[in-house]
């Protein structure tokens, strides 16, 4: 990859008490790539996200974004550089209308810098972003209080809120979980579109079939370690992976 | 009628005292136990500037408020920032800062400083007049308390709902981690909330203190009052704090009218005990909801 390396993780390790949550993980994501991260529950996927985004400080190892070291920076600084994430459990600002949720990132220093200070009608920009991500403008969904929105919208709101920050890397922590098949089938093209627009995406996911349609590469974690990495078909042929992740001889979806 | 008017004034006094504490706690989950000390400090600073340095009264008030908000920011920057996430230590450290301020004010003999001891320190009323409302004689300062309290509550609401900074403070208050992921600096938010909260403590002081003497001991009482209001209203809930101020304010005035003023403090502490027994999260608190979410 060399030139194309966008986000690079080098030998990152974190233990909680005696438990090695993430053990000597190294990997890279190229610009514009979608990397899927899969693994059984408790294999350290969310800790990995927390390590990259600065919520958890690693015991050792480094994270580089555009060849700049970001380990040790606080989360808001990392977000400011352009690496942001969604949360596994949706965390909208419940008491605010959906579009107001986007005003928070639209006020951030990053937006002031990238958009040259002039944003004009922020509410309008927020609603445009929401519409892009599947909020029907005519149905007044963007104006509804976040806590009254159904799950499918909340997931999209979570993503929209990240996108409002104009990030360069988005880390989606189980963005499909809890969604129905039809809701997922509306999310998939959204993510495809994001990639077409040049976004670099890391997806933590349990829904393998949908994930494999999207990703360029997939990485399998087990007990905090990297078990395998490669194109989905290849990785799923790996016997170790099948055993660790799917149990022995389990059917794939 | 007497009870209604004096109850309202008393309630607003409670609200003024508590609103700064609630704001800080609501935004940053920081219990600022130096709140009462800042309140008293502003009282003495203003007194000193008016009497020792012969400054114009409103000017003295503004400078004191500035100092108080700066102190709030410093308390965070120098002390509390090292203790984030350790609630007990946050309480002890901020209380220690409060103790230093309050006992420092009583210190005698250093560089000719006489110490603020005794009942000689009185801030002048803004307007010296008495007005009759519905047959009840009331001094103008109490009216100013009413209007001031109202103005403070309204302006905080406007600030948090209609400004950029206010919105990011609310974002931090609702979900700190999510806000950080959207590029909001939680330390900056905490500094802002503490300096606003401290300025509010000072504002309460300059509005309320002309009604009586300025004494260092008042710092402890003010802190307890603020705590009582916040516990009863639900920690961190602004609407709850205002509601609790009225409950406490009226309960105190009514009990005084019925049984005598000795019962004032019993009502205060009794209310805390009752609320902790029957609704530990406070009148409008959300602690319960948090538990359910986990």
Summarize the structure.
With 253 residues, chain A is an alpha/beta fold. In chain A, 36% of the residues lie in helices and 25% in strands. Chain B has 294 residues and is mainly α.
Describe the protein.
The complex is a heterodimer of chains A (253) and B (294). Chain A folds into two domains: 153 residues, 3-Layer(aba) Sandwich (Rossmann fold), CATH 3.40.50.300; 80 residues, no CATH class. Chain A is built from ten helices and ten strands. Chain A is 36% helix and 25% strand. By secondary structure, chain A is α/β, with parallel strands linked by helices. Chain A is globular, with a radius of gyration of 18 Å. The two termini of chain A are 32 Å apart. In chain A, α3 packs across α5 and α3 runs parallel beside α6. The longest helix of chain A is centred in the last third of the chain and has 16 residues. Chain B contains twelve helices and two strands. In chain B, 71% of the residues lie in helices and 3% in strands. In chain B, α2 crosses α8, α5 packs antiparallel against α8 and α6 crosses α8. Chain B has one domain. Chain B has a two-stranded antiparallel ribbon with strand order 1-2. With 294 residues, chain B is mainly α. Chain B is globular and about 55 Å long. Chains A and B meet through α2 and α3 of A and α6 and α7 of B.
């Amino acid at each position: 990859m060399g030139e194309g390396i966008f986000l690079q993780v080098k030998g990152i390790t974190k233990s909680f008490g005696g438990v090695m949550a993430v053990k000597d993980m190294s990997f890279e994501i190229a610009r514009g790539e979608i990397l899927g991260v899969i693994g059984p529950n408790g294999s350290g996927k969310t800790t990995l996200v927390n390590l990259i985004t600065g919520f958890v400080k690693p015991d050792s190892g480094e994270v580089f974004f555009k060849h700049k070291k970001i380990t040790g920076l606080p989360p808001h600084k990392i977000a400011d550089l352009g690496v942001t994430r969604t949360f596994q459990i949706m965390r909208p600002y419940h008491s605010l209308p959906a579009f107001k949720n986007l005003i928070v990132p639209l006020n951030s220093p990053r937006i002031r810098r990238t958009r040259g200070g002039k944003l004009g009608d922020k509410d309008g920009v927020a609603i445009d972003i929401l519409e892009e991500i599947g909020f029907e403008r005519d149905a007044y969904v963007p104006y509804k209080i976040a806590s009254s929105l159904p799950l499918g919208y909340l997931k999209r709101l979570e993503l929209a809120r990240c996108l409002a920050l104009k990030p360069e890397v988005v880390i989606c922590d189980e963005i499909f979980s809890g969604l129905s098949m039809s809701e997922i089938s509306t999310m998939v093209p959204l993510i495809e579109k994001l990639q077409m627009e040049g976004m670099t995406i890391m997806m933590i996911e349990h829904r393998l079939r949908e994930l494999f349609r999207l990703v360029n590469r997939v990485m399998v974690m087990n007990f905090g370690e990297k078990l395998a990495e490669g194109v989905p078909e290849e990785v799923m042929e790996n016997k170790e992976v099948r055993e660790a992740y799917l149990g022995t001889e389990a059917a794939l979806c | 009628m007497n009870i209604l008017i004096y109850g309202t004034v008393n309630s607003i006094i409670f609200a003024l005292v508590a609103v700064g504490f609630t704001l800080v706690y609501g935004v940053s989950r920081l219990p600022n136990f130096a709140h009462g000390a800042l309140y008293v400090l502003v009282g003495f600073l203003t007194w000193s500037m008016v009497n020792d340095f012969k400054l114009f009264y409103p000017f003295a008030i503004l400078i004191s408020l500035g100092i108080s908000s700066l102190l709030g920011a410093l308390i965070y920057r120098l002390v509390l920032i090292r203790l984030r996430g350790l609630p007990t230590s946050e309480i002890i450290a901020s209380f220690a800062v409060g103790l230093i301020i309050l006992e420092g004010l009583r210190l005698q003999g250093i560089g000719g400083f006489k110490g603020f001891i005794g009942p000689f320190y009185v801030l002048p009323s803004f307007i010296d007049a008495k007005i009759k409302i519905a047959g009840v004689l009331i001094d103008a300062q109490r009216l100013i308390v009413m209007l001031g309290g109202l103005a403070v509550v309204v302006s905080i609401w406007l600030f948090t709902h209609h400004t950029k900074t206010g919105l990011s403070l609310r974002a931090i208050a609702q979900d700190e981690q999510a806000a950080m992921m959207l590029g909001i600096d939680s330390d900056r938010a905490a500094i802002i909330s503490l300096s606003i909260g401290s300025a509010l403590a000072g504002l309460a002081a300059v509005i309320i203190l002309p009604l009586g003497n300025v004494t260092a001991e008042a710092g402890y009482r003010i802190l307890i009052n603020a705590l009582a209001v916040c516990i009863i209203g639900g920690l961190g809930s602004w609407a709850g704090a205002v509601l609790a101020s009225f409950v406490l304010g009226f309960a105190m005035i009514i009990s005084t009218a019925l049984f005598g003023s000795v019962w004032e403090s019993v009502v205060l502490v009794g209310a805390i005990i009752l609320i902790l027994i029957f609704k530990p999260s406070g009148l409008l608190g959300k602690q319960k909801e948090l538990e359910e979410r986990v």
